[in-house]
Protein: N-acetylmuramoyl-L-alanine amidase
Amino acid sequence: MISYFVYTIISLGCSYAVYVLLLRKQKTFQFNRFFLIGSLLLCLVAPFMEIELFKAVPSITEIPLEKFTASVVETQPIEDVTFGEAQQVDHSQKSPFFYVYFIITLFLVFRFLKNLSKIYGLTRNEYEYDGKLKVIKSTDSDMVSSFFNYMFIPKQNTLSRADYKSIIAHETVHSEELHSVDIILLELLSCIFWFNPFIWLYKKSTLQNHEFRADEKSVSSGIDIENYSNTIINLGQKEYRVPLTSGFNFIQIKNRIIMLHQSKSSVFKRTLNIISVSLLLAGIFVLSSYKDLKEPLVVVIDAGHGGHDSGNLDEKNIVLNISHQLSLLSSDNIRIITTRTEDTFFTLQERVEFISTQNADLVVSLHANAHSNPLTNGVEAYYNDKDEFKDKSYAFGKILLENQMELFSTNRGLKTVPMYIFRHINSPGVLLELGFITNEEDHKVLMNVDRQKQIAASIFEGLEEIRKSN
Structure:
């Protein structure tokens, strides 16, 4: 989430810079409106859309384990596995920043709803039609403003006929082009993304662009430009307006007068600017892919047994082959590190010491099960429910287990085990028992090279799901 906040600030900053440099002084008001609202939404939504520009070349990140001089420690036999009740992941602990964000957001939303309620109350008053507008005389503001097809004017106004005509033309443009939709959208976004300074700049620029557009269309409708300019100056001293409305005398007077009298650029220059802006916006949108915002998921794959410790029948070779296939899938998003790359024996302490240096997000220990009853089959997973990582281990184990069900017929569930490795590593850990080598059907899967590749691929798919949810 922190990455999302950072990159939306960066992408919105880049988009706003494009607007200031290429569009703000151009009289392409409709395009400017589209750019401001469109780029704002794209920059906020793009991080959730995964866009893959180049197919990543798989990188092999196998790191061989060097021998340690530490003494051998006793292993935990599988017969001693203790079964525990599955636990739900507890997400109740939140960062203090979350509560600060929540309180401020709640206040802003309350203010927004209060302003909407105020406008609704005003629209219940008596009104008179003037063209398409419902004109309501109000004592709540000394400014002229509008909300959709409602126009609010001071009850005791001293407007001349020329000023009133200019205001009606101006507010009609706001109504016809649904500028109030933009205002409501920007208010909602500022309630949620209040921490992003560019949200407020976007809001200000959009409102200013609304006024520029309304001024342009009002003058083009036949109103004398000099009289219209004088109306802007005469009514520009008022400060308070009804919240969430478009106001005739809102936004800097000087900017509106300058823009009103400014000539349009040549068609070639406007076209060139629009093309440049479109290309730059497309680049910002693509580079905002959330896929690249998150840190890579570092996973240590610990192939069980090895060397003189064969495990159950051919277990050591089966899990080593699957570990090797997983290492071939290693990518920039999911970095696979293996504890052994050949048929070598390592003690549990040596494995723990190696894993502890990798700063892993997850440790997956691969095994193949066995049972005296040849009918016993299926996959199961184990985790330690006594450490600080228990919730993550449980959640990750559940995902990895469910991803094996296309290859194995039985899901034996997620259970607890006080394994030595899990008790001593500094990261979440899951032990996967990939079927029963003593069962005929599971044995066929485990001994088939193509099926081993499929097992590795299904584990990797689970890791991708974990990365997205983490």
